[in-house]
Design a protein that fits this description.
Shape: globular
Number of strands: 18
Structural class: alpha/beta
Strand order of the largest sheet: 4-5-6-11-12-13-15-16
Strand content: 15-25%
Radius of gyration: 21 Å
Oligomer: single chain
Number of helices: 15
Largest sheet: 8 strands, parallel, barrel
Distance between the termini: 64 Å
Length: 415
RNA sequence: GCGCCGAUCGGAUAGCGGCUAUUCCAGGAGACUGUAAAUCUCCGGCCCACUGGGCAUCGGGGGUUCGAGUCCCUCUCGGCGCA
């Protein structure tokens, strides 16, 4: 049977789980480690595919749930699938909708998101669904077979099972698709994490069986998703169970406190088969990318570059800045001196881009998104190169010292 | 000169005798990690023993009232009308 993708390790990062490699897909190679741009609704917000090409995006990740809701499977099919509809000829991924089980479920209306600031306060018993008075009602109900989503568009109910998620992802036709999983909230107690993990494993198996029963599995790769929250035994068990299944690669999912992330990733990647690619779902701050690579992850995706860019936060080698802040009004330097992105090469000043942002001109968020995406994608490319030429540790030290210095200083200065 | 109308935060507004003066914009700051997000939160008169509390404040002055941005008188300024 023909394999949809091939993965080869080019060089290992000695003494760690890290490696540089390449994933060959029907739409081209992805040199790993790589940062995948998020294009949820078949669009990387604010950017055309030519811009993505220009800034060097290795691949795009779209979303099953969102495309299913809008414009719907039938129209995606009628437009010729993801690549054709968005005019992107490079590699693509789709997330299964598993994240929406969390973001529209337990995460909905709460202040709990993908990464939480403090270690979770886990209740002894799971609180009743309707416990929070001023919470908006959730849009998701989870059961044994799948999850029922209430459409925010018209209130209609849509029941997604592993098989349905596969079916929709087959229609969308990305190169790499993910098994349907349940991303849990870190505030759930261990008993619930246990229960949800069994569900994710069951759903993973069903996703795989359904996928393998279709000829399309020869051209579309399926990645299984590992969960388990912050618990070592659950994470390891999940890596064993999912890792033993015949997936083409793996995704590492979950929502957790930042300090739990590196341990979780390490536990998992020590177990997952070395010869298959590993994607760290939804992670992408610079410090997290170094951590993820060092701990054996090959690909990453994250909304941060585009969302932060749209909202006026800019990545620079010296830390993040808010471009709309008064201090940049007369700043004639580029966003990040030395940066090779379109906006910086073109010489657009901080003063100008801050003005665009504040006056709500569309090119402001667009230029910021280009810059941020370039910054992160290029950082991961630098990381890859450093693995190959053996300078990873010095790059990591030099980059993080400079990048985090401003943050440290800001924290150290009393207000 | 007479009459009518108006004056509330930088701008625009709500308020029609009741305790905490509303909202929007502009301004300042922050948040954001498999996109409910071109979004959201906070600040925005003064003072303090700042997890809270105190004192102000609706063009100026005076009055009525337990209580006034709100009612009355007067002045100032602006708009309109009549001489």
């Amino acid at each position: 049977m023909k394999k949809p993708i091939e993965f080869a390790v080019v060089k290992k990062l000695e003494g760690t789980l890290g490696r540089a490699g390449v994933i060959r897909t029907p739409h081209g190679d992805i040199e790993t480690p790589a940062f995948i741009a998020v294009g949820t609704k078949a669009s990387v917000r604010g950017l055309t595919t030519d811009m993505l090409l220009e800034l060097g995006a290795p691949a795009v990740l779209a979303n099953t749930y969102h495309l299913y809701m809008q414009p719907g499977e039938a129209r995606v099919r009628a437009m010729g699938g993801l690549h054709k509809m968005m005019g992107w000829t490079g590699p693509t991924f789709t997330d299964s909708g598993g994240f929406q089980v969390f973001s529209l479920g337990a995460g909905y209306g709460s202040n709990v998101s993908k990464i939480i600031k403090d270690a979770p306060v886990v209740p002894l018993l799971r609180q009743k669904e309707d416990e929070a008075e001023d919470r908006q009602p959730k849009l998701v109900e989870i059961d044994y077979d799948g999850a029922a989503f209430k459409s925010p568009h018209d209130g209609s109910i849509h029941y997604i099972t592993p098989e349905r998620s596969m079916e929709i992802q087959h229609t969308i036709a990305a190169d790499i698709i993910f098994a349907f999983d349940e991303c849990t909230s870190p505030s759930e107690p261990r008993s619930y994490q246990r229960e949800a993990l069994d569900r994710t494993h069951r759903w993973g198996k069903r996703s795989l069986e359904y996928h393998r029963s279709k000829p399309i599995s020869e051209v579309q790769a399926l990645f299984g998703v590992v969960q388990g929250g912050r618990f070592e035994d659950l994470r390891k068990e999940s890596a064993e169970v999912i890792g033993a299944m015949d997936f083409d690669g793996f995704g590492i999912g979950g929502s957790f406190a930042k300090e739990d992330m590196s341990t979780a990733v390490k536990w998992v990647n020590e177990i997952l088969p070395e010869g298959k690619p590993r994607h760290l779902l939804g992670i992408g701050e610079p410090e997290d990318l170094f951590m993820g690579v060092e701990n054996g992850c090959d690909t990453f995706d994250c909304v941060a570059p585009t969302r932060l860019g749209r909202h006026g936060t800019i990545y620079t080698r010296d830390g993040k800045i808010h471009i709309g802040n008064a201090q940049f009004q007369d700043d004639m330097s580029v966003l990040d001196p030395g940066c090779g992105c379109y906006a910086c090469r073109k010489g657009y000043t901080r003063a100008y881009i801050g003005h665009l942002y504040k006056s709500r001109e569309m090119v402001g968020p667009m230029l910021c998104s280009i810059h941020n995406l370039y910054f992160i994608i290029n950082l991961v490319k630098e990381i890859r190169a450093s693995i190959i030429d053996g300078t990873f540790m010095s790059l990591k030290k030099a980059f993080l010292e400079r990048y985090l210095a401003s943050v440290a200083n800001a924290d150290a200065v009393p207000r």
